Amino acid sequence: MSGLPKFFRRVMRGVRPHPPLGAESGPCWKLPHVERDLPAFVRALPRLLPEGGVFYMEGPAGQTPPEVREFLEAHDVPDEVKLVRAILWPRPDIFHVPIDEKIMSELADLLSHYETPAGTLQLQAYRDKQALLWAVSAFYDQPVIISKKVAEDNVRAFCSALGCSYVEG
Q: What would the mean pLDDT of 45-63 be, rounded to a whole number?
């Protein structure tokens, strides 16, 4: 039993709040203060990535409300990008959904019946096999990060819909 604490110390030494995949590899926009409103966030995504984007949502296993899970599973697409998972164990609920105005609006309507959790969701968006948005521990105290590969006009429209501002990262 004495080897177990040593093992966990060694494992935990390598665990840190990881930067989102790609966040340190290039210029980005940071949204330091995004209100804790998942439905509004989801509804605004088509303004950020209007064509061909995919929304990635990761949350604690078994905590996705059944009607939301059914909707997400019905619209789930194959994951084109291997994104860094934030929740390692137990295996989290993970969904990849096309960023489409109709789908995002319907998802936002479903999510509006539930309280937005703080810090337990990992939200990302990607297009053309490139991660473009990261919200690690979403709605807690981490900024939302958007790659500068996304046009500033899109970032501005996204922030306008959310009532927040952005800065260069």
A: 92
Find the mean pLDDT for residues 100-125.
92
Evaluate if residue 84 carries a pLDDT over 80: no
Q: Hey, what are 61's tokens?
A: 């296993």
Report the distance separating Cα 80 and Cα 2, nearest Å.
43
Res. 116 pLDDT band, cuts 50 70 90: confident
- Look at residue 55 in the predicted model and tell me its pLDDT: 96
H/E stretch holding 59: strand 54-59
| DSSP calls for 122-148 | EEEEEETTEEEEEETTTTTTSPEEEET
Q: How far is CA 154 from CA 41, 46, 125, in A?
A: 14, 9, 14
**Pair of tokens at residue 103:** 């789908």
- Type and span of the H or E element at 160: helix 152-162
b/e 38-74 (16+ beta carbons within 10 angstroms → b): bbbbbbbbbbbbeeebbbbbbbeeeebeeebeebbee
Cβ-based neighbours of 157, under 8 Å, separated by 6 or more: 47, 48
- Residues 165 and 59: their CA atoms lie apart, in Å, by 26
